[in-house]
Amino acid sequence: MMTDDRKDAILTQLKVIIDPDLGKDIVTLGFVQDLVIGDDGAVSFRLNLTTPACPVKDLFVAEAKKRVGELPWVTSVSVQLSATSAKSALDPATNGLANVTNIIAVSSCKGGVGKSTIAVNLAFNLAQKGAKVGLFDADIYGPSLPTMVHIEDTQLFYQGSMIKPLELDGVKLMSFGYTQTGTDGGPAILRGPIVSQIIKQLLCQTQWGELDYLILDLPPGTGDIQLTLSQIIPITAAVIVTTPQYISFVDVVKGIQMFDTLKVPTIAVIENMSYFICDDCDKQHFIYGHGAKDRLIRQFGIQNSFSLPIQKDITLNCDKGTPAVLASKTFSDLFSPITDAIVREISKMRYQTTSLPELRHSEFEGIVMKVGDIYYSISPADLRLSCQCARCVDEWTGAPLLKTENIAPDIVPLQLKPVGSYAIGINWSDGHSSLYPYEQLLSQMLPV
């Protein structure tokens, strides 16, 4: 068999392997590179993936070896793994972020929900999966990284004009807390413009080097720091952390709306301290109530929603400065699906494998949505009546606050606008604004 024929035979075998998230085979996606076929039938090639933390990389390797090994003339199969970083437009001479591929903001508009715990464990779990990771503590007033990740020597040094980050277990670290003198530092009594300058200097003048992911641990709120970061760096995506209480849910909505305004997609929501399992039973006790996570799924269409329990060991490890994913395999396994989902969503964004439905309003057809080659429609009044926002629904009792007679039959949408990749925002002629996940729309509309 000629070499070209053998190459075609190998690629045909590999085309059977489909990336479950991108929906295409690994040959079409360009993952198969450096294919070499020896005279003795030895085959070697490289799978160049979207990220070293690819959740299915081991499956790809095993399946590739199996498929190619089925060819009768193949004597051995060697598969190497690599990943290509997206190119940055930043100047590496002046900006330490120039070789950072993805920037993930971990945020919560409410304090005390365990956001820093999530950010720390996400960073170290990504590193456990083989990614090059950095973690930036963006809280100037109350930096938590020096406490949550214990390092003996926290003295900072310059490499030329850039600051050398600290490092633990392969994760590069930077925090305003490392610049403070004394064991506990002191209060940062600073005005907004000074805080923005400090953030910019610490973030952009740190020599991060090549990173697959930089995790930003944002402070609570929607203020100067969040706006500064969105203006100076291209944030890839946001992860929102909440707790089951209603007040936390209200603040989470503000955070999602903030990131939508900044054109940053929210790709996951984590409900921390969701439940408690006591020592004497296996029952989940929802001591703070529950329902907020389901409300987020229903109202915003964010499918990557996770619940984490209250665990004493997590608190003890945080106080000792040890990330829980490093100290406990049980917690690492519990946290791993969160990391995998975030990695998958970012890979989807990079390859843009999904297109958003098209929506329009017609006086005669109502609100029309095109999905693929199929059109669906619904009357504006019916859609307005189904709004699930807090003003329209008493979420905690499930009783609708809006009645049919309160919605004018001639109501119309003044504006239809995509919100992230998961929902459509509508400004109505009665002054109300609604948000509808695409799945909710599809379940209510009829084909035309």
Describe it for me?
The protein is built from 13 helices and 22 strands. The protein has about 450 residues and is of the alpha/beta class. The strands form six sheets. The chain has an eight-stranded mixed sheet, sandwiched between helices. Strands 14-15-16-22 form a four-stranded antiparallel sheet. The protein has a three-stranded mixed sheet with strand order 1-2-3, with helices on one face. α5 packs parallel to α6. The radius of gyration is 25 Å and the shape is globular. About 40% of the residues are buried.
Task: Give the structure's gist in a few sentences.
By secondary structure, this protein is an alpha/beta fold. It has helices spanning 3-14, 57-69, 115-128, 145-148, 192-204, 224-232, 246-261, 292-300, 312-320, 324-327, 329-351, 380-385, 438-444; strands spanning 32-37, 42-49, 76-83, 100-107, 133-137, 157-159, 162-164, 166-168, 171-175, 211-217, 237-242, 266-271, 305-307, 358-362, 366-371, 374-378, 393-394, 399-400, 413-419, 423-428, 433-437, 446-447. 31% of the residues lie in helices and 25% in strands.
